[in-house]
Amino acid sequence: MQAKHVNGDGELLCINTEKVYDWILNEATFDLTIDDIELPIVNGVQLTCDDIDNVTCEVETNDSEELNREDRPYVIDGTPITLQLVTIQKNFDVTIIINTTAGQSVEAGTFPFTRCEQVILCAPEDTEVNVTYTDVDCFVCVFNCDDVTPGVGTLDVGVTVRLCQSIQSTFPVTLEIFAEFCEPRELLPIVSGCPTPTIPPQCPVIFPNNNGDE
Prior knowledge:
By secondary structure, this protein is an all-beta fold. The protein has one domain (21-178). Helices cover 0% and strands 67% of the residues. The protein contains no helices and 9 strands. The strands form 3 sheets. Strands 4, 5, 6 and 7 form a 4-stranded antiparallel β-sheet that branches. Strand 5 and strand 6 form a beta hairpin.
C-alpha cells in the first residue's frame, strides 16, 4: 500500500512514540552517615589519623525504582482532578576520598545507599515513571578520625548528597502525523573545543497545559 500524499511533498506517516503525561524537575538532598571506615594502606604503609588533611566524596547514581503509587484527589483552579502520589527508590554509591598531608588522594571505600522520595504526578495506571539525573553532587559536612589501636584509625564521615532530577510519566502511543522524510545534512568542518550546552526551543503555548483548558 502506498503512502497517502497530501498538500505537496509531505505525506501522512504512522509513528510510534511516547506521550508525556507529566514532567517535573525536582531537587532532593540526602544526609548520610558512614561510620567506622578503616583507614587504607598506601604503598605498603598504613595511613593514620595524623596523615589526613581533609576528606571529600564522589557520588554515582544507579537505577531508580518505582515502589508504589496511590490516587490522591486534588482541586486545581476549581477543577477536581485525580493525581498520583508516587514513591521512588533511588540507589547510589558514595566514594570517600582521603586527601593526605603528603598531597595524595586515596579512596577509603565505596558505600551503596538507598533513599526513597515521594512526588505528585499525573501518572495514571499503565504509565511509566522515568527518573533522569541532570546533576549529582556531594560534599563532606563533617568527619572524625579515631585511633582504635596505636597507629591504626577509623573514620566517621557525614555526607550530604544533592540530586537534580527530571521525572516524567509516559505511555507509548501510535500517532498519525503529516511530515516529510529527513535527509542527511552536509558535513561540517571539524573544529576544536566543546560547545556550550543549550536547551532546545520550547512550545509553552501548547505544552504543558497548566490552566486546565481543553
